[in-house]
Write a structure and sequence with these properties.
Layout: H1 3-18, H2 22-37, H3 41-50, H4 69-82, H5 86-99, H6 104-116, H7 120-141, H8 147-164, H9 206-210, H10 215-222, H11 226-233, E1 241-247, H12 249-262, E2 268-276, H13 282-292, E3 297-309, H14 310-317, H15 321-326, E4 329-336, E5 356-364, E6 394-399, H16 410-414, E7 423-427, E8 449-455, H17 460-469, E9 478-483, H18 501-504, E10 510-512, H19 520-527, E11 537-539, E12 547-549, E13 559-561, H20 562-566, E14 574-576, H21 585-593, E15 603-605, H22 614-628, E16 632-636, H23 645-654, E17 657-661, H24 677-681
Parallel strand pairs: 1-2, 2-3, 3-4, 4-5, 5-6, 6-7, 7-8, 8-9, 9-10, 10-11, 11-14, 12-13, 14-15, 15-16, 16-17
Helix pairs in contact: 1-2, 2-4, 4-5, 5-6, 6-7, 6-8, 7-8, 12-13, 13-14, 21-22
Length: 683
């Protein structure tokens, strides 16, 4: 059966049409049309019977057509019309009407084509014939005519009738009495009252009223008349933020042409955001954007172009160095494609003023298993040094780990120049399992936030060795390390004053080791290097090698002593322990005992601990309220199946927590993007 390929081809052609690639859509539809005409009659009868269609398209016809024949004729006609080939569009529309004389949609298209050829009278006759045929087939044969196309056809017929057959003026006879002078006076039309709401506004109110318009709406307002154009463009702030969501090549081209017209008045943008409807057009969209916006400046640029590769983007951006040099913040969703991994970041060579950079790599077409970069202290190739990056303050590299199997931009990071970067986030990349996989961290000595998550091959043990052996910097405030695999245990060596842990972590406020391989003993040793007066937040959820107990047990490294652990942090504000091993009511009693140390605690996250009951939660919150005199600000108990809605309502009514999150259907924290590319992309 050839039915399935034809349907697939139809869908593919529709995709090309929606992408405004009318040439390819037309070619595909015409091939489908030839295929539909090649079916034998018996096969067509079976197809129409299987789809529960009548044997003939028209009751007065004795010819059998393919079920999709009419749709294909319509698609071919509309493609020709979009390509401005009106003669071909006219031909295929007439063929469609010959097959289905009651097709109101075809009559609407036919009269529109005739109007474009200035054949108003013929278009009017077509509308009259279409209305008549639709009514005739509906009354005689009971064929259901779609109401919307038929109403449009009737309105077209009425409009054309007024143009072709103007109403005859009725000559009124005047009776003139003798000896009377008749003075005919023309009736004057009352002068129209026009209310210009834009021009009449005070200049300071105009931005407040039209400032909430989308970019498309604002441009439409400006094009109403010259006076509105002058009013709108007298406000530079209105065109500072442009967003083209679900855009196409045609939309982007229109914007670029419009931007050329206003460049002399407004040659700078605060924000430009673009996301494509059809990723296939990403390369040519970017070529048009970087080529046509010459002379523009932009502070923040957000581009979601998953089919545009880094090599292509490097070529396009090199054509507009003025725009590149003005960028301070950039977010990109791109595809990685480079046979030379050392030059992944060539597209950024002219962005010397960047302060914040976020790159999300959605796919990779370059060769996998690229060897790890080997750094030579005696020789560094000048081309590899990203001299443009000296002003960078925040860098995020996020990869879809299912499609990207290497560490993009590793060369850029390894040869990073002297900088003042404060935030570094790397997720979803693949590390080579070597001893010096984190040696490049020595390039970043001013970091305040460091985030590693879901990086295949990245080892927490190796990372902690770097913190132990090298003085990386004393400004780190937030550290997140979530591992790809938790098979190994990280116990950490016994504490020693000769290590650099104390220096590197002296200002740490937040520690997030969720989903890591650290053990209870290792965590106990690590926190001994922290400054209690600075520490505010800890997340040790989903750590399979940690078990909360009252006292430490040297023979079992998984034991974490609740007594010695929580007493060390009297200023703790957030305790996050979702999916925390065997946390049940007996372990919750250990938390009751530590409530005297939680005077500043604001948030507790106990999600996905199914063994905890409502009784233990209620007692914990009641104890905190009695000791401190004020309730907990935020309680999260998503996925705690043993806590009923009755307990949750009682906690709310008693005022034991200001805010409660309780969603029973959550299965696992990983499922909701805590450890995924989407989490960082939406952050």
């Amino acid at each position: 059966m050839e039915e399935e390929p034809l349907v697939k081809a139809l869908k593919l052609g529709a995709t090309f049409y929606r992408a405004e690639n009318y040439g390819r859509a037309l070619e595909l539809f015409r091939r489908c049309l030839q295929l539909a005409k090649s079916y034998p009659e018996q096969e067509l009868i079976k197809l129409r019977a299987r789809l529960k269609l009548p044997k003939y398209n028209c009751p007065r016809s004795d010819k059998i057509y393919h079920p999709h024949y009419v749709q294909l004729l319509d698609n071919v006609a509309v493609c020709y019309e979009k390509l401005s080939d009106l003669s071909k569009a006219l031909e295929y529309t007439k063929r469609l009407i010959k097959v289905e004389p009651f097709n109101a949609k075809a009559y609407v298209r036919l009269q529109r084509i005739l109007q474009r050829n200035d054949k108003l009278e013929e278009a009017h006759n077509i509308c009259r014939r279409g209305v008549s045929n639709c009514r005739k087939f509906q009354e005689r044969y009971g064929i259901v005519i779609p109401s919307k196309p038929f109403e449009v056809l009737q309105r077209c017929e009425k409009s054309l009738r007024e143009k072709v057959e103007p109403l005859e003026q009725v000559n009124k006879k005047h009776i003139i009495e003798p000896d009377m002078l008749v003075v005919e006076t023309k009736k004057r039309k009352p002068e129209g009252i026009y209310l210009d709401i834009i021009s009449g506004l005070p200049p300071e109110l105009l931005p407040l009223i039209v400032g909430g318009f989308t970019s498309k709406e604002l441009i439409e307002v400006a094009l109403v008349c010259k006076r509105w154009w002058d009013c709108v463009f007298s406000q530079p702030r209105l065109f500072q933020r442009i967003a083209i969501n679900n855009g196409t090549y045609r939309k982007l081209n229109k914007f670029c042409d419009f931007a050329k017209r206003i460049r002399d008045r407004h040659g700078s943008l605060d924000l430009f955001k673009y996301s494509s409807r059809t990723p296939v057009d990403d390369p040519r969209c970017m070529e048009a954007f970087w080529t046509k916006l010459q002379g523009y400046k932009c502070r923040r640029l957000i581009l979601s172009i998953p089919r545009c590769t880094t090599d292509q983007l490097a070529q396009f951006m090199s054509r507009n160095t003025h725009l590149c040099g003005s960028l301070q913040e950039m977010s990109l969703v791109v595809s990685l494609s480079s046979s030379k991994p050392d030059f992944d970041a060539d597209m950024l060579n002219h962005c010397e003023n960047l302060k914040r950079l976020e790159i999300i790599v959605s796919s990779c077409t370059s060769p996998s298993h690229i060897p790890e970069l080997s750094r030579s202290p005696s020789f560094i190739e000048t081309k590899l040094i990203p001299t443009w990056a000296s002003n960078l303050q925040s860098l995020s590299i996020c990869c879809d780990s299912a499609r990207v199997d290497r560490f993009p931009f590793l060369t850029m990071i390894s040869y990073f120049p002297s900088n003042r970067m404060e935030r570094l986030c790397i997720t979803g990349v693949t590390f080579n399992q070597i001893a010096n996989q984190f040696d490049w961290l020595s390039n970043f000595r001013h970091l305040k936030e460091l985030w590693f998550e879901d990086n295949e091959g990245a080892s927490l043990a190796v990372f902690l060795q770097v913190l132990r052996d090298y003085p990386l910097g004393n400004r780190l405030e937030k550290l997140t390390f979530r591992e790809y695999s938790t098979l190994n245990n990280v116990h950490l060596e016994p504490t020693s004053e000769s290590y650099f842990y104390t220096y590197n972590l002296q200002n740490l406020k937040s520690l997030d080791l969720m989903g890591s391989s650290i053990s209870g003993k290792g965590l106990q040793r690590l926190i001994s290097y922290l400054q209690p007066s600075n520490f505010r937040r800890i997340n040790i959820g989903y750590c399979p090698h940690i078990r909360l107990e009252r006292y430490q047990n040297d023979s079992d490294p998984s034991y974490l002593s609740a007594t010695s652990f929580f007493i060390r942090f009297p200023y703790l504000q957030e305790l996050i322990i979702p999916q925390f091993g065997a946390l049940d009511d007996s372990k919750m009693k250990l938390l009751f005992e530590q409530s005297t140390n939680w005077y500043h605690l604001r948030k507790i996250d106990l999600s996905l601990n199914p063994s905890i009951t409502g009784v233990s939660i209620y007692e914990l919150l009641k104890t905190l309220l009695d000791l401190r005199g004020y309730p907990l600000e935020h309680l999260i108990i998503d996925g705690c199946l043993s806590i009923s809605h009755v307990t949750v309502n009682m906690i709310r009514n008693k005022g034991l927590a200001s805010q409660i999150n309780c969603t029973y259907e959550k299965d696992t924290w990983r499922k909701f993007g805590v450890n995924s590319l989407r989490y960082h992309a939406n952050k």
